[in-house]
Amino acid sequence: MASKNKLSLAIDLGGTSAKMALIDTEGAIHHRWSLPTDIRDQGRYIVSNLIQSIHEQLTILDLDLLDIKGIGMGTPGIVLADGSVKGAYNLNWATAFPVKESFNLSLPLPFYLTNDANAAALGEQWLGAGAGHQSLVMVTLGTGIGGGIVSGGRLIEGSWGSAGEIGHLTIDTSRTYRCTCGKYGCLESVASATGLVNLLDHYAQESIVSSELLKDYRSGAMIDAKQIINAAKSGDLLALQIFDEFSHYLALACSHIANILNPELILIGGGVSMAGEFLIHAIKEKYLNYVYPPIKEQTQIALANLGNDAGLIGAAALVIRNN
């Protein structure tokens, strides 16, 4: 274990589970654990469960609060100025939940909180694919789409904590897909894991191509994003049609990001990014047709490389950069 007061306690909170770790000033993970996220009763137990788990782990490791520099946490939703979180629907925190206040009452340590995609962006900028770069945008592709912006080495959170809501760019004005936010045409509704399935539902209705994916769909099989991507990689005609439109929306969004922010890098992460270079190549090919020509050689698109640890590393970075 690292020397006294050199450890940051990092939390990456998700709708299914919370990942936690003790991380030193060099970014090395010394101990990690997780616990299920209990979203019952408007998520009222989530923070108390986290706090209880932290106390238990510190006892097991024979550490006390003096050994911890602070706590950094990434969370779904919008982080308000007072450290409350709202709009985290997968946590049942539709209205503001007093996260920071709850931690401060039970754990007298410096506490830093940001959106989970922001934490992932910080992690990648510190030790991941963005290391050595002062300007990047992280796009996380999962069930939904998140975004984090780093400029001049600093996280950009906006006036009210809502900067980087890339998943809710209105990118499709012709479809009728409703986003979880209640709006229609969001990037998230056509270019996330959910978006891939939405596109399958659309194209499969009238498709006449020869396709094993189509046969499986019409037989009633449950098909997820990974299966669609794997089918596209294998040359399935329906899957390729879906993947072409999917990557078109992502490329268009990346061009808007590049035109407005002109970062050094746009990093693609999250579960869907496991499609790897197959996905990056498709995005880049279309992106070059959409982006403002002088920016073509400036803002590059690449895969994030910290995987599931990006949020934890970024949460630790919140502590380290503020101490």
UniProtKB/TrEMBL annotation:
GO terms for biological process: glycolytic process. Its EC number is 2.7.1.2. It comes from Facklamia hominis CCUG 36813. GO terms for cellular component: cytoplasm. It comes from the Bacteria. Keywords: ATP-binding, Kinase, Nucleotide-binding, Transferase. This is Glucokinase. Belongs to the ROK (NagC/XylR) family. The keyword Cytoplasm does not apply. PROSITE patterns: ROK (PS01125). It is an enzyme of class 2 (transferase). One of its GO terms (molecular function) is glucokinase activity.
